Amino acid sequence: MITNRCAAPRRGTVLILVAGISALLASLAVSFLVRMRTDAEESDRSVRLAQAHLMLVASCNFIQERSRLGWDDPNPPAGTPTTHVECFGWVDIRDGVSGPRDQTQGPGDFAVPAVPDDTPTPMAVGTWADLRTPLATRPVSRQPMYVMRRPPFAVLPKATPNAISTTTDDLDFGKPLAKHCDPEPAVKPLPAADTPATWSDYAAGDKTPLPSGQVGAWFRVLRDGPATFVVTCGCGGTMGFRLRDWDAVSGTGAMTLEDKAMFGNDRDLFSQLEASEVRLWYRVEWSANVAAADYQCLQNEIGGDHWVQWPLNASAAPNNVRSQPHPTNMVGTIRWVQRLTNEPTYW
Amino acid sequence: MSSNRRAFTLIEMLIAIALGLVLVYTAAAGLRVAAQTVTVANRLALENEIMRNGFEIALDEVDLWRAYDEPVDAMRQGQRSAGGIFCPFKSSAVGVSTTAPATSATIIIDIANIPGPTDSERGWNSDYVWPVADPRTWFRNNMAERSGTALHFGGYKRFSTVGPADATGRTHTWLANQLDRLVSAFGYYGMADYLPAGTIYDYAGGSFPVTGGGMCSLLANTGGLNFQNGDGGADFAQSLYRATKNTAFAVYPLTAATPINATSAAYTRWNVGQNANQDSTRTFQLVTSSHDPVLEIRPTTWPTMTVSTARTLAYNRFACVARVHWTSPLTGNTSELSFTCFGTSLRGARQQRRADSGWAVWHSADAGTGSPNPNDATLDNAN
After folding, report:
1. Where are the domains positioned within chain A?
2. Domain boundaries in chain B?
3. Complex ipTM value
4. What is each CA distance from A8 to A1, A15, B6, B201, B296, in whole angstroms?
5. Does residue A140 belong to the interface with chain B, where contact is any CB pair within 8 Å?
6. Chain A (9-38) residues lying within 8 Å, Cβ to Cβ, of chain B
7. Which pLDDT tens digit goes with each residue over A158-195?
8. Which chain B positions have a beta carbon within 8 Å of A32's beta carbon?
9. What is the pLDDT of residues B180-218, one digit of tens each?
10. Is the CB of B362 less than 8 angstroms away from the CB of A340?
């Protein structure tokens, strides 16, 4: 009993000491974790800001490509044109008239802007590019840029082999036939033939967000002049919609039921998403001018006659004849970029 | 009566004390390490926070050009005078350009008195989009035309010359005037920023008449100007790539580590790439990089940080390099985050600024579709 009397206070002391040290360590660990979490939260704004800036590049690419490009539909609906839609710039390079216009449009006519909008159907006419619509009601092209499982019109990032037959008995012996399209569509499984179904799969893509994707970046483009655009670059959860679009019952930009369903039909949630977003406004101007006129493939500069021109791939030719390093692009250039220091009236 | 309670022996005491000391020391060491960890974590968190702020400041600088012109501070608008890269376009007197531009760059572009769309049009019109449909904007003959050649494939003088006249007895001054006025107002970087891609930076005639074919432009490496670098021979039409191959042009911040006269330096061509060496590269970096300290008033234990940007043109590419640089006062370690970024161009920066002072507000009224708010006049359209 005497021994017990002596041991009891010792155990209590140890317990107090261990508990105290543990509490101290626990508080340090918690404060450390809280600090890390705070850092992560504060870093989130920097990430969003960086992604919003990246959207400026994406939007300029968008403006450039939509100035001239179109897509074929191998199985167009009855009554629609079968010609390849190829346009001639936001300001038509043929006559300087506001475009884009396809081959069939006469000079001075802006009746049908042949620009696909952001619907999955590539031949659809994009009303957002129609300058006849008053600016206050002119639609914008909204482009959510979250990481999709398979974007619309996705192609495989690889070369497609078109092997030349080396079998002498083969009818195709030695012929460089391009039997397989290059690039290949990223439709799985690859279509055996062009059918409406495979085309629609290819065109629609699989827009399911990848779980590893970051917070979604997006941009909106409003055409406010023949070749000038108001670009809104953002990063957050709204996918480029605005609260104004949510509240609009109908008309330009009004969100559909499907749109609202993406946000759980919760206006308060959408409002919070919008409030926490990063948004940057820019104006840019497109130009039909393309690559520099410099040449690197003419014999002139090494002393020969000036009309001798080497092939573009003549890098290995004698006398250091070099190939043209700046081939022209097909989509024009961006002349200037201006970050707007205020929120514009229309965007 | 002796007690049953016996005292500790000396050996027991010594062992207990030793073990106790070990325990106390271990606990103290653990606490010290934990405390140091928290201190380091706090310091790293502080550095990260400062780095993040610097990153955001740098991104803003990429878009706002405040290191070159501060719209709300008249003391930091040194490049708004004539010849400066932020000089306003005004309705000041200007003559028709038929001779070499003044190297002192004292001419202010007259946009209010530009004639109609004729070949004699002079000066810069910010509303003109240079459509490719306008034959004044393109040349599709022989780009390799040289002095003294037979002109089998057309002659550049039919496209752009200020004299002597071509075989038809006419001069073609439009492109020459665009180049002349812009280079006189802004220098080389500004001229290239304003002109569309694919512009031919040459015109024939003027003080350097040629016979037969061949470019002998006012921008050539003669007459005190220094735009063409001579690569590949400078006697044929060239665009921006050849003029910036192995050479660079730049804009000069107000806060450079080694400030230079921005107006005169606007006509400076720098060697880069294979033509450069260590010293020239360092000088180029010092005069073209802004050097803006952030948090100048701060606790002594906080890191020092500077944010800088450099805007250069080389190899036909406009580049903006941003750097965030910080130094820990405790460890002395320095770190730098550098990145290139796409943002506001020089012309965009000029459009951001009111002609008097402050930031210009833009509400899309220029689109002519009934915007209720007017747009401010900017450095690009001031009268």
Report:
1. 150-212, 237-274
2. 41-88+246-383, 95-244
3. 0.85
4. 11, 11, 17, 96, 60
5. no
6. 21, 24-25, 28, 31-32, 35-36, 38
7. 888 889 999 999 999 998 888 887 888 888 666 566 66
8. 37-38, 41
9. 778 777 888 998 999 988 888 877 765 554 555 555 554
10. yes
